Amino acid sequence: MNEIKELTDLVLRFRDERNWAQFHNPKDLAISLVLEASELLEHFQWKNGDEVAHHIEAHKDRIGEELADVLYWVLLLSHDLDLDIIEAFKAKMEGNARKYPVDKARGRHEKYTELHGL
Ligand SMILES: [Mg+2]
User: Fold this and answer.
1) CA-wise closest residue to 15 among 77, 81, 92, 101
2) Alpha-carbon dihedral sign for residues 93, 99, 103, 105
């Protein structure tokens, strides 16, 4: 069993034990995903470079919890949409590699449209 499947099964068991699927629809799952991503952002809001570094050092566990919350909703939404997130991720990475070829993008931060003169 791959680890994504294993984690998805954990998420589904958690939901099913609480009978929460009745409250779930793609819109609200997507909203939940963004809300958790926003909670991640709160760790960095209003902090400068040094403060960010110190905050990460002091609160890596809490940052990890927010990343886990994001992953929870990614896994659940992927499941409910019957979407293979592993295949979607691989396809996206292949697309990213085409958008950002190493010979053009290495060491540069411009968006792909800039790199390709689009
Ligand atoms: Mg959270």
Assistant:
1) 77
2) negative
> Measured in angstroms, how far is the CA atom of residue 66 from the centroid of ligand 1?
5
How many Å lie between the centroid of ligand 1 and the Cα of residue 69? 5
Cα(49) to ligand 1 centroid in Å equals 23
CA of 32 to the centre of ligand 1 (A): 9
Domains of the chain with CATH codes: 3-83 (1.10.287.1080), 84-118 (no CATH)
Answering whether pTM is above 0.90, one says: yes
Q: What is the pLDDT of residues 78-99, one digit of tens each?
A: 999 999 999 999 999 999 999 9
